[in-house]
Amino acid sequence: MSDRGIPRSYRTMEDFGIHTFRLINAEGKATFVRFHWKPVAGKASLLWDQSQKLTGRDPDFHRRDLWEAIEAGDFPEYELGLQLISEEDEFSFDFDILDATKLISEELVPVEIVGKMVLNRNPDNFFAETEQVAFHPGHIVPGLDFTNDPLLQGRLFSYTDTQISRLGGPNFHEIPINRPVCPYHNFQRQGMHRQDIDTNPANYEPNSINDNWPRETPPSAESGGFESFQERVEGHKVRERSPSFGEYYSQPRLFWLSQTPVEHQHIIGAYSFELE
Questions:
Q1: For residue range 62-80, what is the model confidence (pLDDT) as tens digits?
Q2: What is the DSSP letter of 182?
Q3: In CATH, which of 3.30.230.10, 2.40.180.10, 3.40.47.10, 3.40.50.80 is domain 1-122?
Q4: Would you give the DSSP letter of residue 217?
Q5: What does DSSP assign to residue 30?
Q6: pTM reported for the whole predicted model
């Protein structure tokens, strides 16, 4: 309903994750984190009537704009930013930071820029490299872990079902676009569309048929084995929403106050159009 919802281009669209993850350092200390992509080209929007005309003339306007910019060598760039919150400050806000419907104001927690992504080539084969890509919030690297964000917890298992349905079987992670580029070792075997050819007769431990190999990698910073964050949990486990999720009004007001007078009129016009 605002100009932010009608980007001028994917190259001028700001992106951010709604889920709170954890970063885990070498000492095992956890820090809450939310991820951001900041467009180097800056933010720009379309007006409502502009978007209507563009949609009528070219429904693939945004995709074409991105493709042609990359082909012309005008590579889109996005800076990777982190909002970091210590565990001690988890309850220091007027809202629950594990509530996926809440944004964390950059005035409260500044975004720290740590890297950059450059889109420097288009896909060679759109189906193989784009249609078959399988994003999954459960596929993480060492040093990153989950939180008790309830929507994230639901997605951790539902996205596996999604990819199995979309890509025809449990081995979607072996399709070339989804395969790890680093060495990987797991105990997974068989299933539809299996690509790896395993010669080891055992995929479990302990075993007596292959000198007890393979074995699970012990979790440590040196070995690279994954270990979930050892979070201390107290209280009663119940199936209900936390009262801290019940505050609905301050964030829409915060967003409204962040807009310019011209943007206010665009929001009013958008709501008036939809509601009438």
A1: 999 999 999 999 999 999 9
A2: S
A3: 2.40.180.10
A4: P
A5: E
A6: 0.89
